[in-house]
Design the sequence.
């Protein structure tokens, strides 16, 4: 079509911009606390609810803690949790999905029955239930959100495996005398990685959003440890006097999510030829 | 057609059964004995055993589950350990609040997003498409609670146009009720419209590449007629599924919006229940929301063949 001229550059530009945003946030999360030293819990009552001032480039919060430091440490919290949650969900989903799809039979039926039931919960509801069990903590969030999003990975992986196992190269591996385990690891697993990568990028964004929502509700990262979500929640009563306390953490979440979404779209277009229009 | 309807309805039953089992199991893994929790620190030695027996906690787990399931099926969701009120009537009361907000929001979001997505697809890769997709992606990236807090700060605190705290039901006072609805609905519309727009665009593009569209064009139909009569109609079916999913998941996600605007809805009831360790309330809310989610999805699937007749084949 005549539109081809515009399409590819626009897409690449988006993906590049998304990768740039996401990359900066990750870099800030890893190196920020090393470059900008200071204690995100340190109180300075002169800076309480103040906007940008000398010594506090982004002002102070309701206890006079430095907002910039807290945002940087909040980035570390968000990225850390999102990374480990996504890894947990993907690893578990790959294992269960491959097992179910490759072995078929009653293993598949039982696993899928439970998986479908878990899919019948909205993600956040399931996470809320798990948080009630594990309690509000970093590890609690990683386990709760990981378990909540794992069924989605299982579905995608199993679907891929089902179509793969009928392919000739899998049969060839069997004919060559490879054990089922070797076939699974050497031939099935690598072919699942493309759809899983697409899903994992999207999921990274879901987790950042869900973690900040849980923290906002008071069921995520417990204060005083800074996370973007709990900063918004504790700043709520001061919205009128110190709007920067509301504006900045939310802006951080949005910019990060925008980066993830744009990067995710590019990854999908790149790895999933069906979506290319 | 009848067969399709029956199989689909019957397939929801095992799902619901496992959902109830999962919720029951979840509540039993929570550390702490509910009976000990109810009695507090001041309990006499014999009291705990007596209460455990009265609550049925001394029986084996399968028996406990069967008893609980029987109660649930007859509409007995237990009593709140905090207030002693029956849980189910409370759920219905709170649900009517959440449902008002969610339904109005999804309706407006669809009315805006479906045409926007289709226009974007029609003008694929032109300026209007890039702008619509860009706006949708932007809104998709804004968390509802942040958007809500910003609206609250601007329209509630700075301009003073809209009420900041509390909730008035539309049924009690139409004028005031609508005033309280504006900001929560606006928040949800903006956030959800992004996802619906992108879905409507993607499915329209998918349909527009099919052969019957080329055929319609080859017949000499105008582009407008091709799009209106042939493309949009079929493109709506997948979007409809997404709207259903959003409707269902919003019932869980609404907890966040209800927290921002202090709306006494079902989501807030669940969160307060978790904080108060009021397990009958948590259990009841989770069960009710999960059940609604399954029901909404079922309904969406049942309506689907009307939009896309190929499905039953």
Sequence:
């Amino acid at each position: 079509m005549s539109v081809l001229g515009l399409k590819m550059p626009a897409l690449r530009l988006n993906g590049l911009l998304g990768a740039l945003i996401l990359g900066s946030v990750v870099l800030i999360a890893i190196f920020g606390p090393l470059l900008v030293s200071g204690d995100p819990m340190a109180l300075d009552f002169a800076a309480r609810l103040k906007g940008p001032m000398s010594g506090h480039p982004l002002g102070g919060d309701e206890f006079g803690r430095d907002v910039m430091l807290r945002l940087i440490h909040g980035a570390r919290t968000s990225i850390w949790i999102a990374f480990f949650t996504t890894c947990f969900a993907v690893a578990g989903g790959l294992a269960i999905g491959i097992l179910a799809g490759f072995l078929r039979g009653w293993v598949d039926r039982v696993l899928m029955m439970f998986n479908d039931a878990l899919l019948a919960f909205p993600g956040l509801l399931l996470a809320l239930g798990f948080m009630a069990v594990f309690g509000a903590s970093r590890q609690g969030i990683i386990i709760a959100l990981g378990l909540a999003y794992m069924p989605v990975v299982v579905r995608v992986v199993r679907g891929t495996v089902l179509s793969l196992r009928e392919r000739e190269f899998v049969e060839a591996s069997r004919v060559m005398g490879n054990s089922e385990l070797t076939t699974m690891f050497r031939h099935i697993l690598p072919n699942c990685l493309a759809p899983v990568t697409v899903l994992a990028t999207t999921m990274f964004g879901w987790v950042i959003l869900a973690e900040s929502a849980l923290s906002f509700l008071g069921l995520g990262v417990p204060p005083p440890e800074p996370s973007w979500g709990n900063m918004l929640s504790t700043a709520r009563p001061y919205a009128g006097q110190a709007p920067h306390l509301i504006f900045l953490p939310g802006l951080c979440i949005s910019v990060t999510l925008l980066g993830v979404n744009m990067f995710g779209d590019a990854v999908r277009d790149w790895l999933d030829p069906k979506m290319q229009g | 057609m009848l067969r399709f309807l029956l199989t689909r309805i019957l397939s929801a039953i095992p799902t619901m059964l496992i959902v109830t089992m999962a919720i029951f199991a979840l509540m039993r893994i929570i550390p702490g004995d509910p009976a000990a929790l109810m009695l507090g620190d001041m309990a006499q030695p014999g009291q705990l055993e007596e209460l455990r027996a009265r609550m049925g906690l001394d029986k084996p787990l399968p028996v406990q589950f069967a008893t609980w399931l029987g109660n649930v099926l007859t509409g007995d969701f237990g009593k709140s350990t905090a207030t002693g009120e029956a849980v189910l009537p409370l759920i219905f009361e709170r649900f009517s609040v959440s449902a008002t907000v969610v339904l109005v929001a999804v309706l407006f979001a669809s009315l805006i997003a479906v045409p926007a997505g289709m226009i974007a697809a029609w003008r694929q890769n032109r300026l209007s498409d890039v702008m619509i997709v860009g706006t949708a992606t932007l809104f998709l990236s804004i968390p509802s609670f942040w958007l809500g807090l910003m609206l609250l700060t601007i329209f509630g605190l700075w301009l003073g146009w809209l009420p900041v705290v509390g909730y008035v039901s539309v049924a009690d006072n139409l004028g005031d009720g609508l005033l309280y609805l504006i900001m929560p609905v606006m928040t949800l519309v903006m956030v959800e419209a992004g996802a619906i727009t992108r879905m409507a665009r993607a499915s329209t593009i998918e349909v527009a590449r099919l052969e019957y569209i080329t055929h319609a064009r080859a017949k000499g139909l105008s582009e407008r007629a091709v799009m209106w009569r042939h493309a949009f109609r079929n493109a709506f079916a997948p979007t409809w599924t997404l709207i259903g999913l959003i409707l269902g998941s919003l019932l869980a996600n609404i907890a966040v919006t209800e927290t921002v605007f202090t709306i006494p809805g079902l989501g807030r009831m669940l969160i307060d229940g978790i904080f108060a360790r009021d397990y009958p309330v948590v259990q009841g809310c989770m069960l009710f929301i999960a059940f609604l989610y399954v029901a909404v999805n079922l309904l969406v699937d049942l309506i689907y063949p009307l939009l896309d007749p190929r499905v039953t084949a």
Q: What stands out?
A: Chain A has nine helices and no strands. The CA atoms of residues 177 and 183 of chain A lie 10 Å apart. Chain A has one domain: 2-275.
